[in-house]
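CHAIN AND CONFORMATION:

***
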Amino acid sequence: MSSLSQIVSLVGSVAFLLMIIYTVYAGKLREAYAIIWLFSSLMMIVISVSETLLNFLSRMLGIQTPAFALLICMLMGILLLLFQITIVISEHNQKINRLLQEVALLRADHREGDR
């Protein structure tokens, strides 16, 4: 990987890490989710800095250009994060449905108590 692409990758990874830290500090991202994002950004930094690791990954994946191996690693990380977010959304949808059912039952009980 050329030094320019390594620098761009490192700068982007560090900027992403700083963005995560800022959103946690601002209260926009919960700490439980921040751990996953922090781990991902640290892995991006490690892969961006370590040219030997990147070359090893590209050989293992059968990719001739290490920059493409970096891109594939980042895409796989994004897919894993999206999968985790989908699981969280599904859990929240189930909780919302249960709450809606409980509210409907409470309203029905309240209406019967008014009669």
